[in-house]
Design brief:
Blueprint (H helix, E strand, L loop, with lengths): L2 H4 L13 E5 H7 L3 E2 L1 H6 L8 E5 L9 E4 L1 E2 L1 H9 L3 E4 L2 H15 L7
Parallel strand pairs: 1-3, 2-4, 3-5, 4-6
Length: 113
C-alpha cells in the first residue's frame, strides 16, 4: 500500500480561504518606482495578474511611496505613512459596502404594532 494511504489524515481544509501574495517593503524599494500598482508588480514578476496582494512590513523605507494593494500589515502601513507615502486599498469600496450590508442584517428589527 502506498505511503500516502498509510499515513493518517488530519486537519481541515477551508474551501473558502482567500490567499494573498505577500510582498515585503524591501522588495518594493528595489523596484525604484514612486507609485507601486498591481501592474508594476506583475511586470516585476512579484505577483500574477489575478493575485490578491498583501504588503508586509519587513524592510526599511526611506522614500515616499504610493502603494496600491488589497491588504496591508500594521507595520507596513505605519512605515509607509511615516516615510511620507500613501496607502491605497484596492477594492475598499466594495468591502465597505459588503460590511454595511452585513451590519444592517444584524440590527434588531422594530416590532410591528
Amino acid at each position: 500500500m502506498p505511503l500516502h494511504r498509510r499515513l493518517p489524515k488530519r486537519g481541515f481544509t477551508n474551501i473558502f480561504r482567500t490567499e494573498y501574495q505577500a510582498i515585503n517593503l524591501d522588495r518594493l524599494v528595489e523596484l525604484g518606482e514612486s507609485s507601486i500598482t498591481q501592474e508594476v508588480l506583475v511586470k516585476a514578476r512579484l505577483a500574477r495578474k489575478n493575485d490578491l496582494i498583501k504588503i508586509l512590513g519587513d524592510g526599511e523605507l526611506k522614500t515616499a511611496l504610493t502603494v496600491h494593494a488589497h491588504k496591508f500589515s500594521k507595520s507596513a502601513h505605519e512605515k509607509i505613512t511615516k516615510a511620507g507615502g500613501k496607502v491605497e486599498v484596492i477594492g475598499a469600496v466594495a468591502v465597505a459596502a459588503e460590511t454595511e450590508r452585513k451590519q444592517e442584517k444584524l440590527k434588531p428589527k422594530k416590532p410591528k404594532k
